[in-house]
From TrEMBL:
Residues of the full protein shown: 670 to 962 of 962
Name assigned to this protein: EAL domain-containing protein
Residue ranges constituting the EAL domain according to the UniProt record: 31-285
Biological source species: Massilia antarctica
Localisation: Cell membrane
Length: 293
């Protein structure tokens, strides 16, 4: 009986190995497939950028646009990043896609600046994988030159994790970008674990308060306190601050009362195609002034 049990265990073990191998192959295959599809999408020009206004709340002026990636396979609606960015990161394709995003965003900004908005800026999200490229700073310089916009018109949005991981290398890279005149902002601020020490050590210019905290302003005491603390901290560290995910007049009013004067969110506009953004910048959001609400 013991022999039989042993035999069964072995068989089961073998079956498990077979099972895991199959599952693993499937996962690897799936990743390869998505990698391949994203590579094709890039080659076939299926990516587009949408732009979301960043607004100075008291004047209603749009001072910058955040470029947000969309994937639009022919004959379909644009797919948001949430659904494929992680795959692009895993497959490494985010490096090529990110380069395309940067080039596209800078070229578009040039059109807007030449078309009567010489002060407008552009914000572009950066993946940690892009920063790993040792020639990344040179590439950014080249893209700015080709587009014909100054480094001061570009803001790169980094993640808190970039301040924590490989920090000596990242510190050197981010310092070079900053020395070139590029502004660096910390995206989704408050969701990671970056300490004050990191913020002082790195050449960070502004903080973007994560939308999860903004969403709960007035509803969740902890989140409300956190928003207040981040705004106060930014002020004492001489950093800029912008709130993400502002959806209501009440949120805008609270933020202004706390000393945060810049916002981005559905209250003003969602991210829109370049042609629609051109119409947005022609008008100010004067009707949305939180002080008159
Ligand atoms: P993010 O950079 O924090 O961008 C803000 C996200 O919140 C965007 O989603 C935007 O459409 C959405 N959003 C803006 N205002 C509101 C609001 O009032 N309410 C709500 N509920 N949502 C709002 P999206 O475009 O799906 O992008 C998701 C994330 O994907 C971005 O978060 C960013 O981390 C990443 N991403 C987008 N484009 C790129 C890119 O070109 N490169 C890289 N590496 N990442 C990108
Ligand atoms: Mg962002
Ligand atoms: Mg964010
Ligand atoms: Mg909450």
């Amino acid at each position: 009986a013991a022999d039989t049990a042993m035999y069964h265990a072995k068989e089961t073990g073998r079956d498990n190995v077979k099972f895991f191998t199959a599952a693993l192959n499937q996962a690897v295959q799936r990743r390869l497939d998505i990698g391949k599809r994203l590579r094709q999408a890039l080659a076939r020009d299926e990516f587009t950028l949408h732009y979301q206004p960043q607004v100075e709340m008291d004047s209603g002026i749009i001072f910058s646009a955040e470029a947000l990636l969309r994937w639009q396979p022919p004959g379909t609606q644009p797919i948001s990043c949430g659904d494929f960015i992680a795959n692009a990161e895993e497959s490494g394709l985010i490096v090529s896609i990110g380069e395309w995003v940067l080039r596209q965003a800078c070229q578009q900004l040039k059109i807007w600046r030449d078309g009567g908005h010489p002060q407008l800026k552009i914000a572009v999200n950066l993946s940690p994988r892009q920063l790993e490229q040792v020639n990344f700073c040179a590439l950014v310089g080249q893209i700015l030159d080709e587009a014909g916009i100054p480094a001061s018109a570009l803001e790169l949005e980094i993640t808190e994790s970039m301040l924590m991981q490989r920090s000596e290398y990242n510190l050197a890279m981010l310092t070079r970008l900053s020395d070139m005149g590029i502004a660096l902002s910390v995206d989704d601020f408050g969701t990671g674990y970056s300490s004050l020490a990191y913020l002082q050590r790195f050449p960070v210019h502004s903080l973007k308060i994560d939308q999860s905290f903004v969403r709960d302003i007035g509803k969740d005491q902890n989140d409300t306190a956190l928003v207040t603390a981040i705004i106060a901290m930014a002020a004492s560290l001489h950093l800029g601050v912008i709130a993400e995910g502002v959806e209501t007049l009440q949120q805008a009013q609270f933020l202004m009362a706390q000393g945060c004067h810049a916002a981005q969110g559905f209250y003003y506009s969602k991210a829109v195609r370049a042609d629609a953004f051109s119409e947005l910048i022609a008008n100010k959001f004067e009707d949305k002034n939180p002080l008159h609400g």
